[in-house]
Amino acid sequence: MSNIQIPQSMLPEDGRFGSGPTKIRPAQMQALNDAFPHLLGTSHRQTPVKQLVASLRSGLSEFFSLPDGYEVVLGNGGASAFWEIICANLVTRKAACGVYGSFTKKLAQSIQTAPFLEDPVIYACDPGNYKLPEYTEHVDCYCWAHNETSTGVAAPVERVPGSTEQNALTLIDATSGAGALPVDIAQTDAYYFSPQKAFGAEGGLWVAILSPAAIDRAEHIQQGVGLAGSTRWIPPFLSLTSAIENSRKNQTLNTPALATLVLMENQVRYLNEQGGLQWATARCQRSASIIYDWAEQSDYASPFVTDPKARSQAVVTVDLDASVSDQAVLAALRDNGIVDVNSYRKLGRNQLRIGVFPSVEPDDVRALTKCIDYVVERL
């Protein structure tokens, strides 16, 4: 116990500021309760669940204003499973990867260890900024993250010049960016994410928005498997063509967590009712600005991402002065019901990391900054 008692009047109404899993709204929990008699505990291949998945896919199509031919595809395993799906189904020979944090690095490592692919070309920089892949000969996929969850860095999403002419796909890890950052889906071929960030659900599911080119690529690679000279193995669980076929039937290959589908479908409906992607990104920008402005004016805190153009409006990272222990601050906040503002463990910095996804109230974000000041003054 820290023995620091923050006055009740200062506390945020909701103390959840995690970077994933994130805050779940009470209305989502009510949706779970309403789903109990006819959805939870029933077959995912029957009409009620298929209607739920259809509503989710339709809602995401509206939310992201999908171009003609793009499809919403989903499957089990989370975004980390989709890294392996990329290796098995979308990279034909060689990929180029932007690496600027833990999660961008993990995708590059997956590609590097795939025995049927060449080593990826890595474009890397230290955490705290981003490095996008550049045009590279013989590359058929360009990969990077819209938002690096580990560092609070947001990167542009636009095709590498010349990549269309070489028939290369643009694959964007959007796990903590989707729904919190503006995006033109037409600039991507796979914009993939998990639902436990802006979409306020639980993990264990991946969602990918695929272009016609990505779908064609997956089908072409699948057709080549088993032919003489082919060394590629695509486990059924990682088959993107199977996921596409099942998604078109509004189901998943394997049994999904129905609660996750209920939570996500309710959140997507809520976001669309509020004004869609434009509303969600403006709200996140407002919350993020509160923290960045506070940190820039603070005597003991400063934004970790120094370039304003690279600062995320989904996950905000703030460095603390060496005289202020992040662990002491975290303990005091948790004792007062404010949780999950710890830095990414592998980054190893004296830092706070604050999720400001659409479900988080900007007023609660402002209250959080005042609570941090209150704690630091008393440490």
UniProtKB/TrEMBL annotation:
The keyword Transferase belongs to this UniProt entry's keyword annotation: yes
SUPFAM superfamilies xrefs: PLP-dependent transferases
Pathway: Amino-acid biosynthesis; L-serine biosynthesis; L-serine from 3-phospho-D-glycerate: step 2/3; Cofactor biosynthesis; pyridoxine 5'-phosphate biosynthesis; pyridoxine 5'-phosphate from D-erythrose 4-phosphate: step 3/5
Catalyzed reactions per annotation: O-phospho-L-serine + 2-oxoglutarate = 3-phosphooxypyruvate + L-glutamate; 4-(phosphooxy)-L-threonine + 2-oxoglutarate = (R)-3-hydroxy-2-oxo-4-phosphooxybutanoate + L-glutamate
A GO cellular-component term linked to this record: cytoplasm
Cofactor note: Binds 1 pyridoxal phosphate per subunit.
Domain Aminotransferase class V: 20-338
One Pfam family, short name: Aminotran_5
Binding-site residues for L-glutamate, renumbered to this chain: 45
Sorted UniProt keywords: Amino-acid biosynthesis, Aminotransferase, Cytoplasm, Pyridoxal phosphate, Pyridoxine biosynthesis, Serine biosynthesis, Transferase
Residue numbers carrying N6-(pyridoxal phosphate)lysine: 197
Cofactor: pyridoxal 5'-phosphate
Family: Belongs to the class-V pyridoxal-phosphate-dependent aminotransferase family. SerC subfamily.
Name of the molecule in the record: Phosphoserine aminotransferase
Source species: Bifidobacterium dolichotidis
Organism phylogeny: Bacteria, Bacillati, Actinomycetota, Actinomycetes, Bifidobacteriales
Gene (name only): serC
